[in-house]
Specification:
alpha+beta; Uridine Diphospho-n-acetylenolpyruvylglucosamine Reductase, domain 2; Uridine Diphospho-n-acetylenolpyruvylglucosamine Reductase, domain 3; Vanillyl-alcohol Oxidase, Chain A, domain 3; seven-stranded antiparallel beta sheet; five-stranded antiparallel beta sheet; disordered N terminus
Length: about 475
Amino acid sequence: MSTETPTAPALLDELADLLTGDLHLPGSDGYVLLGTPWNVAVPSRPIAVAAVADAEDVATVIRWAREQGVPVAVRATGHGAAAELDGALLVHTGRLDELAVGSDGRARAGAGVRWTRVLEEAGPMGFAPLAGSAPGVGVVGFLTGGGIGPLARTFGVSSDRVHAFEVVTGDGVHRRASADAEQELFWGLRGGKGALGVVTAVELDLVALPTLLGGALFFDGTDAERVVQTWAAWCADLPPEATTSLAILRAPAMPGVPEPIAGRTTVTVRFAWTGDPAEGEAVLAPIRDVAPVIFGMVGVLPPAAMGVIHSDPVDPMPTAERAVLLSGLPEEAVTALLAVAGPDADCPLVVVELRQLGGAVALGTREDGSLCNRDTAFTLLGVGIAAGPAAQATLAAEEAIVRAMQPWDTGRQLPNFAPSLDPEQVHRVYDPDVLDRLAALVERLDPDRVISAADPIRAAAHPAG
């Protein structure tokens, strides 16, 4: 494999002629539109963007890249972007938008499909996918990171519902990975993110769920201590029909932000219940009664409306995120968190979120995929603006939260909450045996080092390599 990065127009023209889709070069509208990730704080400077039309286009790009010595990156929506892509060729899978939902509760989705479409098509048939909290993200990227959504405590990790992946690996071969074929690759794709190739389609099982009880209740920041302490204690006895999270919000006063929460600090408790709605209302009562509710509601929803539970931002933003996994949330941990992120703290972060795990999330064995850290009690995520004068304050506030929560920090992370090229962070995502197994897959399927997302795996497994 050549070590030089070809940028000569003639070489890119050669690739463009081989594709059914389009190749967008720097300076073009398509390059800017498709090359800019959802997190606009991450610069994106690939040598070109290949808007592939089908799986054969993906294979063509990878074979061409192997011959020319060009690394390949892949995006659909650009959520979780971490790399600047200098010298890389970006494969954009947005046109791989096939979607079929069967009456048997199984769906097939192309790599360009977002959860929103699956929710909309599955709902009238009485099914729901195990989508994430933000239905606007891509199906494939979420599933290759394991996937922990608003129904996770009932139904488990979303990647456990995958029946098969279709993927072009770094050797240019289009493979189908399932429990019956390419089993080792199938194992690695369920948690290995994009390190093992460019996924072109996925087949997954849905869950039978005509409706659910769900929504969010907002409380004024002055009640934060009472709300968060009550929520943490309440979580200890929640049955697996319930999945919940809590967020301290500092929503700006701007168009689109509801007036009751705009420009002030609030605490919101999110709740999803998959059992009998009346039973769910009774379970939620201690939270509903803990303090005056200033905004929001919890009610019976169609699965297609699942996104209202978290109401994550839809439009692109410049953000910085920091996530840790917590072993528990005792009273002293809540006090420590509120000291640095509560209403009286000088905290610029837009969101400081806790998600309770447990329940079905913790089920499964090592052979169910490469996702590690299923036995975590809570996730903690801080999100702030990473642009202009706010950027340094955001990073400092996130570091302050990590320091404050150190006694309960497991030192581990989940792949969808940890977009990074840092090998040290890779060690926090994967157990040593899992990392070695992923690295062996990478070496076998991508001997010429084409897939750029595999680089952190290689570096973490072989520090001197």
